[in-house]
Amino acid sequence: MTVTIVGVLLAGCTGDAADAGPTGQAAPTGRILQGGAPGEANTTLTAFPEMPDLVVEEDLDFLRGMLLHHAQALEMTALVPERGASEEVALFAERMQLSQEGEIELMQDWLRERGEPVFDLGSPGGHAHGDGEPMPGILTDAQMAELRAAEGEEFDTLFLQYMYMHHEGALVMVDELFTAEAGQDSWVFNIAKEVDSDQRIEMDRMLAMLAERGAQPFTIGG
C-alpha cells in the first residue's frame, strides 16, 4: 500500500488562483491520499485527526456553579445605585457588573451549544453546589439583608467587605476545578483563568478602597 502526499501538486493542478500562495503556487491542502489495494479506490485522509472531547462533569458543575455565583454578585451590584454609594464605589461596581455579565453570557452560550441545561439565574435558593452545600463566598440571606439595609458610607464599606469575600469564594471554585484535574478542555481552562484573573484584580482594588476607609475585608471562615 502506498501513501502519497497531495498538497502543492494536487492543488496546483486545479489552476485556482484563489488558492495560490505568495509565490503563485497553490497552498497545501493538509490532506493525504492513501492508495487502495489493487482494484480498490484511493482514500483521502485528513492530516490532523479531530481532537477528543475533554469536557468532564466537573467542568459542567464548575460552569453552572459559577453562573449562580456571578448571579449573586449582580444582585449585590444592583443595590449600589439605590443605597447612596459613593461615586468611587458606584463606578467600581458598574465595571464589575459589566465584566460578570459578559462572563455569564459566555458560559450560558457555551452550555447551550453543547445542549446542556442552563439554570434560571433568578430562581430562589440557587446558590449551592449540586450536593446542596453553599458555594464558597456566597452571602447568606441575613448578610444580604444587612447589605440592603445599609446606606451611604456604611453601605460602601459593607459592600466592599462582602464582595471581597464573595470574590475569594470564586477563587476557591477555580482551585477546586483544577485540583480535581478538570479544566482540560481549552475553553473551560481559559474561562476559569479569566475568572481567576478578573477576581484577583478586583480584590486588590477592593483592598485599597477598604484601606482608605480604615476597614478590613471579610474573608471565608473569618
From TrEMBL:
It comes from the Bacteria. Residues 17-36 are annotated as: Disordered. It holds the Pfam family DUF305. Residues 59-210 form the DUF305 domain. This is Uncharacterized protein (DUF305 family). It comes from Ornithinimicrobium humiphilum.
